[in-house]
Amino acid sequence: MKNSLKAALLSGFIFPGLGHLALKQYKIGIVLIITSTVAVVVIVAGAVRTALAILDEIGAEGVPINMDSIIAVANEATTNSGNFVLNTGLIFLGLCWIFGVVDAYRTGRNIDAQK
Questions:
Q1: Residue 19 counted as domain residue
Q2: What DSSP string runs through 24-85?
């Protein structure tokens, strides 16, 4: 398998930066892994914060818990809460992922051409 394809697949299907590590481009690989991990942590923290707010609101209403009340509270919590941090984390992770795949493929193609 060509270096370019292997690197792009590792970065695309596993995690951004792994393709760079396979190409022995350690600095950019580690930077991509760290930034992507930070974005994932921000996303998970935002999702947990939203889930806890939903649980608090369901418990505070004192109504019997059924699927309709859960859906109503979840819809209200996700539309009313400022999900700026969550959306920013998702966009940042997506950009890191795209950059990781494209740059790993480009770097791998350059290495393949030198052989």
A1: no
A2: T-HHHHHHHHHHHHHHHHHHHHHHHHHHHHHHHHHHHH-PPP-HHHHHHHHHHHHHHS--HH
Count how many domains the chain has.
Answer: 1
Q: Is 13 contained in some domain? A: no
Nearest 10 degrees: Cα torsion 60, 63, 67, 73: -40
11 occurs within a structural domain: no
Q: How many CB atoms lie within 10 A of CB 98?
A: 13
Residue 71 lies inside a defined structural domain of this protein: yes
What does the alpha-carbon distance between residue 95 and residue 69 come to, in Å, rounded to a whole number? Answer: 36
Q: What is the pLDDT of residues 57-76, one digit of tens each?
A: 777 766 667 777 777 777 77
CA dist 96 and 112 (Å) reads: 24
Domain assignment of residue 75, given as a range: 25-107
Global pTM value: 0.79
The count of C-alpha atoms lying within 13 angstroms of the C-alpha of 105, restricted to the half-sphere facing its C-beta, is 9
